[in-house]
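Practice problem 4.
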């Protein structure tokens, strides 16, 4: 039995904000990510976002008001799935001021 070679997933350049927060482990579940956004705790490029379906892309700047800290993140990569915490940490960086 020959298996067909695995086809690589296409590069993703955009994604829903709630999925990005969940995939990068900045929120524990997708539903909590959606509620976090609906509650007004996220800003995208300086503008408050309340729609979990808002699209983000590489280069966007997110400001997230988490429970015990504020995170400012520049999106470096869009992931097709949730990954390990180590891998997720490499998908965003803190922009220089």
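Answer key:
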């Amino acid at each position: 039995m020959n298996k067909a070679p695995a086809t690589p997933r296409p590069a993703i350049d955009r994604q829903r904000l709630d999925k990005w927060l969940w995939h990068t482990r900045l929120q524990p579940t997708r539903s909590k990510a959606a509620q976090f956004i609906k509650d007004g705790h996220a800003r995208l490029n300086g503008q408050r976002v309340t729609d979990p379906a808002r699209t983000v892309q590489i280069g966007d700047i997110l400001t997230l008001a988490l429970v015990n800290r504020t995170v400012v993140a520049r999106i470096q990569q869009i992931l097709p799935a949730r990954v390990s915490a180590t891998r997720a940490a490499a998908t965003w960086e803190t922009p220089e001021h």
